[in-house]
């Protein structure tokens, strides 16, 4: 009996991967989802007042070493992230759903039930908090710096003061223009965030994305998430349209998301 | 949502709420960083993995991008830059300002040491 715990890693011992926790989930919304690995289906695991969305996976494939290898491979990283996200999103079609981070694993279903019982109050309060709400992502981009020769902004009197001063003034002008662009981008980002915070029930700042992720030649100056009432997509779109016109910044919205950014109590 | 490389994925066929073609970066920052953390039986240190793969690949790149675009205030963000580069910029700024002040006072009163002016011009 106790051999299960100490069995060799190449055996077929399973672990239970947990995607999300809800009150109820209609099992049919999970049908056909591949989950983390081929084999066992993604299914619901009733845990008292809560329901966990889980999948039995081969324990040997989900050790820390296996994760290190898996998540260092961009293709595998993407597959896992999207598979996890697909299950979380499917479960959320049935009601408020708390996502768990990638790679939450237990030695078996009974261990999951135990953990859910231990954390039931925490899950319940978060489920209440996010009920009727969805997350929207909002990104603000600054216009790229103009290319071409720098205009002489130092003033006409520099001409008579020699090359040294002209050089320094050019350097100073460059610094000032950078500073100015910085201030403008910052102002636009803060203005957008302030308006959206008024509109939203809660907000979070996320780390801005680099160009590889954000695409084109543009700089992301705000990456934020807002918890808003379900069904307010049209209002949000209108508001961001107005803010775009007012600030001159490029604004991009994504959603609705399961409220990933608003379930962690920290 | 403009980078095609980060939008390909198998999820579009599911009836999921939310962005049908979400960018990978958007998904990663949510499934890795967010969600309720509960102690699992199998300990996975995602922070290390995240630092190695995600931050380097997707986020730290923004420092170079921002510099090229002429917005270098990222450098004051300790998450995105080393202290050294920030200090270098501050030092250069301070040095330039000092030299400019010397020059301007020299032009006005003609009392600045000659060596300073020559140094600045070169």
UniProtKB/TrEMBL annotation, chain A:
Keywords assigned: Gas vesicle
Entry keyword annotation includes Cytoplasm: no
Keyword Isomerase: no
InterPro entries: GvpL/GvpF
Pfam family name, one: GvpL_GvpF
Record localization: Gas vesicle
Domain of life: Bacteria
Recorded family membership: Belongs to the gas vesicle GvpF/GvpL family.
PANTHER family per record: PROTEIN GVPL 2
Protein name (Swiss-Prot/TrEMBL): Gas vesicle protein
Organism per entry: Streptomyces camponoticapitis
TrEMBL record, chain B:
Alphabetically ordered keywords of this record: Gas vesicle
Subcellular localization: Gas vesicle
Biased composition (Basic and acidic residues): 102-112
Main localisation: other
Pfam family, one: Gas_vesicle
Stretch list, region Disordered: 1-20, 102-122
Family: Belongs to the gas vesicle GvpA family.
Designated name of the protein: Gas vesicle protein GvpJ 2
Lineage, broadest ranks: Bacteria, Bacillati, Actinomycetota, Actinomycetes, Kitasatosporales
